[in-house]
Records
---
Amino acid sequence: MTTWTVDRAVTELLDRETTRRTGGRITDEWPELDLATGYEVQDAVLRRKVEAGQTVVGVKLGLTSRAKQERMGIDSPLTAWLTDAMVLPVGAPVPLDELIHPRVEPEIVFVLGERLRGPGVTAATALAAVRSVHAGLEVIDSRYTDFSFALPDVVADNASSARFVVGGKAVPPQRLDLALEACLLEVGGKVVATATGAAVQGHPAEALALAANALGRRGVALEAGWVVLTGGLTDAVFVEPGATVTAEFASLGSLSVTAR
Ligand code: OOG
Ligand code: MG
């Protein structure tokens, strides 16, 4: 059997994505895939996508809520990249024919008005850099069978990124108490989960600070204009063809996607 390298992991994950197939955990065959190497793979996957013409539009956090951590069996948050190819315009269907086994999760989304560079970023300084807050829905789609992975695997796989929708209603952060911002997740009009913003690291701005500090340690700043997905507030739900998933927020408005 060929040995694993960063290059091989990159090629394998990109191939799984384009051919819409899952596979086993890379850490099962390559225990040396540690967290730092996982981020090396993640960055190299991004480089390939940028070479192919995609542009970075922001970052996402993963596993920032207890609901997500418990479901995935991993208690450590992570960061990953967002590119323009992942943008799903409001009203566009979840393209089931381009994805493997997508799940949808509600998120609080920030758009930055100023550059943010760690280390030393606090929730307060993070929030001061935010231009607007939005309702969001992320469509995740793991390249691992049954969404089964260890932390370095999911880091390498860009935190199961696939598509994301950002609601059109832009609310200035000063007008919100984001810890208390309530969210109902509905499938076909039925509430299946609820949370408030406090589910995400106690406050979504803590998640933003975490991303700025983690990326700062890797020499990367969050740029003005970037979108930041702060992480699923609740567990994600599978989307059956024709099903509509709605995130209804107290102040951020309501956002739906339908799978086609
Ligand atoms: C990992 C992606 C996690 C979130 O918001 O927690 C994530 C997964 O659940 O497959 O995007
Ligand atoms: Mg997410």
---
Amino acid sequence: MKNNLIQNSDQISEKKINWEDVQIVFKEKFGNEIFESWLKKIVFVEEYKNYLLLSVSTRFIRDWITSRYLDQILQIIKIQKKEIIRIEFIIDTLKDSKLTEKKTDLKSFSNKNISFLKDSYLQYNRIDPNKNFENFVIGESNKLAFEASKKVSNDISHYNPLYIYGGVGMGKTHLLNAMGLKLKTINKVMFISAERFMYQFVKSIKSNDMVKFKEYFRNTDVLLIDDIQFMNGKEAMQEEFFHTFNALLDKGSQIIVSADRPPSKLVRIQERIKSRFSGGLVVDIQNPDKELRYKIIKIKSEELKYLNSNSIEISEEIKIFISTEIKTSIRELVGALNRIVSFSRIYNKVPSLAETKVILKDLLSIPENKVTMDVIQTEVCKFFKISKNEMLSSRRSRYLVRPRQTAIYLAKSLTSKSLPEIGRAFANRDHTTVIHSVKTIERLKKIDSELNSNIDNLKNQILLKKSNEI
Ligand code: ADP
Ligand code: MG
């Protein structure tokens, strides 16, 4: 037994969980929709002897993940490390998963022990059939990039190189992918991110495989390189890239590059490479305007409805709300819609506006959802003209029971607090009481139109109060 323990602790220090690895499995096991909407947001914090500490940015996301996916998540993690027996979440509103994404990318590049990466270049030459020209929605901000991409796909080396730039989540990878998809029907296509290119380069040098590397990249008819801004430093590699670039142009191959900024703003990339980029066609994708955002929501929600073959129709109000509020990127926009759809599928109803705000809290630029238990209790007491002591008391008179149940119901629908947390805020009531109250009100709402409209009024008052506070 003792021996075993020692052995185990040795293993622990040897083998750390590779979070990137875990996320790859998440994506495979849960599918893209669940991964993009929920699991991608999980940030790895720390690994302890037999448990993992993870963080997410809102309670709602934590509750959603733990109630639906925790068992499978644990199983997946156990495959990497069987010692892990539980997972703990912390809520960290400041931690931005985007930052961590970037960090892990860089880490993977320098980590020499990435056993899960197979040696084949082809592994990264994956073109996603779901990102094509047909489902790329066009608006003012991306029209030029779209047209140039189409042109190149019909007639290679028309614009050569083609350089597309724009902010994160604006559709650059989608367009590159669409071009790859179209072009690969008659051409040899190589689609790779700049980071992967660097990784392969370093690896080929280490394994004395440069000849193969050169052959591989110089043999293609179309070279698509995504996120070129990550190709920086490393003189020898830039040298190789420059030569590959020239060799390809000489033989009439098409080069397509994406970046988050124009060529002249690239840092730590040789001037001659930048000037090569500028020599072709440079087009940008700008932030989507409201019209395009709405169009995307409209088209995507039809698409999702069809894919999931369900009849849930997201209300116009929600569509307008999402396209008005989520301005940062198309990725976030699509992510928000996916979340609403997965909520609707599970609860078999479309979320109300208030629920939407809770579900999307971490994506909305409206400040922290400040609906507190206290505000709910105060407003409900005021409305029903009872005192807070009466509400929290254990008395069961009818004139107290309904307001109490209403407040509990509102706490459940307007905050992301768990059932036990709500129970605690109501003088330590049991979570079964909370469930009972919520169910009772839900049932009554359907048959009692006065109660229903009272609740709507209360909801509005509480939410209004919240926005006044901010
Ligand atoms: P980028 O590479 O610019 O960061 P992506 O191409 O990865 O952005 O786009 C993010 C997400 O948004 C993807 O799911 C993509 O399919 C979707 N998307 C972006 N632009 C559009 C568009 N114009 N029409 C439809 N979907 C889009
Ligand atoms: Mg991209």
---
Amino acid sequence: MIRLPVKNGEVAIEPTKIVAIGRNYARHAEEMGSEIPGEPVIFLKPPSSLIGPDSTIILPGMSKRVEHEVELAVIIGKRAKRVSAENAMDYVYGYTVILDITARDLQAEAKRKGLPWSTAKGFDTFAPVGPRVALRDELDPGNLEIWLRVNGEMRQRGNTGEMLFKIPRLIEYISAIMTLEPGDIIATGTPSGVGPLEHGDVIEAHIEGIGTLVERVMRES
Ligand code: MG
């Protein structure tokens, strides 16, 4: 469970699941050599991968290449089961920044073998969130600058308006498969520019209207 600042106080984020979207920005799908999907591509990250702001991402010994992906996180506010896109935004509590940290070498191997991505996406510390939660009415999630710097160098830069599948469609699609509970998180996909992380790196991940999430990177000792 993670506590984050929110307007007039603090909120406890305790998801039953983190649903992440793959290939939701065309240029990122291109840089991965992936096709543009006809339906949302979803996978799960475990709640045990969550960490708060100003924490440490641990590079696991099992991987030789761990990469950053900055994403807009949608936090669900009430139980959503088979919700239509028209009504979907009623189920949103707010937004924060999430890093979908990925062991890219393990993911590539899984793709090659036709296996799931749970290993590549599921290590402890692979889902940093923060620095705060913006409530649903504080911003328009369809037009926000999103960027990520490593050691002060710009690596990823885009706008949430580039998403192939918008938030209402994502909620409609996911809630037709699995009930979304209050506190569940949807990681809405990353813009292009993903790249490797090294021991000692400092990440700044920013979304307009939310703020800048800062994390350190350390190799597993
Ligand atoms: Mg991602």
---
Amino acid sequence: MPRFQRPTGTLDILPEEQSYWEHVRAHAIRLARRAGFERIDVPVFEATDLFARGIGAATDVVEKEMYTFNDKGGNSLTLRPEFTAGVVRAYIEHGMHVRPQPVKLYSIGPVFRYDRPQAGRYRQFHQLNLEILGTQDPAADLEIMLLVWDLYAGLGFRGLSFQLNSTGCPRCRPAYVELLKSYYHRHVDQICDDCRRRLETNPLRVLDCKAAQCQPVIEAAPPIGDHLCDECADHFAQLREYLDLLGKPYTLNHRLVRGLDYYTKTVFEVWAAGIGAQAAVCGGGRYDGLAEILGGPSTPAVGVAAGLERIILGMKAQEVGVPPLPPPPVFLAHLGPEARQEAARLADGLRRAGIGAWLAFGERGLKSQLREANKRGASYVVLIGEDELAQGVAAVRDMRTGEQTEVGLAELVGWLQERTGR
Ligand code: AMP
């Protein structure tokens, strides 16, 4: 028989990892709800066209990274490579523009990209996604940025900073793109093949090329900040004023354009120091044109996606601890067939009363059961033998002190409730 392994670029999140996941999820959801975000769950797969249109056919995500397949009905479907297109699709489909605006939505779940796997880069990973739909206000951009800031700060990340840029709008960007192209055409012999190609398909992306030979060309490229229209410049200035007011450090980064086509105006990333190569822990921005691209009403919006694997890797790199997920405090040991039945009944009663209980399985000696209770980290072992059963009691051992107490079966739940704080 072949031995199966998980697909390349995927992770098994084992029980011992789950304390991180629970902690991060709970923290993220608490922050989102506190700022008035409501949860939305959208399908894991959508029509391929939604992503091709929404994200942009010439982006890396759409060109190279989508998991696309035909279902048995011949429909082309794609596993979501990100949340925004699906969330905006749902906003339009359910007529959410008639609700009080803006609508604030959060999602959390797996996304899929055929990426080159490496540390912090997977093919199935999880994102926390936040969107504010239906407002132009730079205060919404700020709110999204502060929320992810608090997400990382509250999880113990140090050395946080924003990278910030504005990529303009359909009014000012085309002229800038022409300027950038003519600048690049003058340096075409100095740039990599990828950039030569991008220059035709997705010119802004030349600015975030990582190839060494392109760096001097990027450094000297005209910055988009000098070519924004009044509306974009004003929006950007207001956002920076807010950030200054709140004392949040940011670096203006004219190379920051991000991979997805739908961004307008604000784009930003959060960087964390000391977590290695993948310093960008999350990225987002404004996408005022997306709803229209997807056939909906004009809906200015801003959002962010944070990768949860990268958060957890970062927490480990920065040696941030999380509270453990405690095992059931009570272990039920039994000797003899009738005692076994009573133990099963008690386990059920304890769980119903809200007390975690582990029932020993099988017929085994006391020593073996106590060893198991110890390994499982139980605080109390309830031991029932035939003698105890005859007297209507159980022997309860406090595993920390070794002290043993006889407790009436009728009182047992209350007795343990008091001691386990349930
Ligand atoms: P993006 O949707 O590309 O803006 O990515 C948003 C965030 O998702 C990034 O900042 C990372 O935290 C995370 N991310 C993106 N791609 C991957 C990947 N292949 N593996 C793990 N996390 C990722």
